[in-house]
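<instruction>
Derive structure tokens from the sequence
<data>
Labelled lines for chain and fold:
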Amino acid sequence: MKCMICKHGETAAGAATVSAQRGPCTLVINAVPAEVCGNCGEYYLSEDTARRVARMADEAERRGTDVEVRNYVA
């Protein structure tokens, strides 16, 4: 698909590093499957992946985590 941010690049299957914040908690997730723009690097997550990332952030906040870095595991 055409990138909605830069309007020039095309997206392709790849991986992204996604950060999510919940209150004082910051979660960084590496290797998240995404469609990534070859021009600007903007990424787009599927609905299922976005829901999973949101659940991971919610869980990290419930555990009282300040900052967590983890890998996405399918």
